[in-house]
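Recap from last week: sequence in, structure out.
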Amino acid sequence: MKVLGIGNAIIDVICKVEDNFIKKNNLIKSTMKLIDKDELDRLLDKLKIEKTVSGGSVANSIVGLSQLGNEVGFIGKVSDDRFGSKYEEGLIRENVKYYYNKKKEMIPTGTCLILVTPDSERTMCTYLGTAGAISKSDIDINAVKKSKIVLLEGYLWDKGDPKTAFDLAIEYSSITAMSLSDIFCVERHKKDFLNLVKSKLDIVFANEQEIKSLSNANSFQDIINFSKQIKKMFIITRGENGALLIFGEEIIECKAKKGLNIVDLTGAGDLFAAGFLHGYINGFSFSKCLENGNELSSKIIQKIGARLD
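Predicted structure tokens:
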């Protein structure tokens, strides 16, 4: 297996609604709100489900890699319930091996309600559910051992059980990559993420804001200096300024594509990672890996959602 992803297993539940549904339920259009199980159930009772997608940041990357023809797998915690079964079915449809034996949990499967209004705007209500309760007992060590790369997501990291799951996966993995996920995630776990980056990871995916926060940088040159000192592979996305790879003294840049019809930024970083890793595991040059990442991210931001097809 080329890449094994370990991340939040969140099922995207897509529903079409009118604008007054958003107002009646005290939601703010085009935002994401964290909700509890009671609110999830209350909203679901009023909705007609159009489509379900097996989502989560690393899951999006893994599906992208599968669509490019790579043999891949995923570990993410769900419950043995309606959405847990849908989640597993969704990955299997995408030719992703799901290395997790679902069982009835106290907490239901993580769910993101995506409410699409007639103007195509998306309002999201996310119930994290059991996704974030992953522990080392959920990690399939054999799957880790037989993977060339293990891809982790910063969203999933937390002290306690998730940390033990990360530590176990890293211990048995040949090459460990991680996405820093989100600037708020970095700021919340800065000391621990710094330790991971310096001591345990081989490849780090980040956008400019995330790496700037992690390194306490005042300028982009500070970011470059920080990355050079640590001597790990950093892949940094910079929006309209393109992307670059820093690996020791080596710096390779790739310009962003111009003239795109951008409709939805969902999954841009996830698909960039998929494109880059596709090149990396298939022996492409670093420059070509970056171009691959740019190609996939530019495609995904010109359509709704985080799936290429």
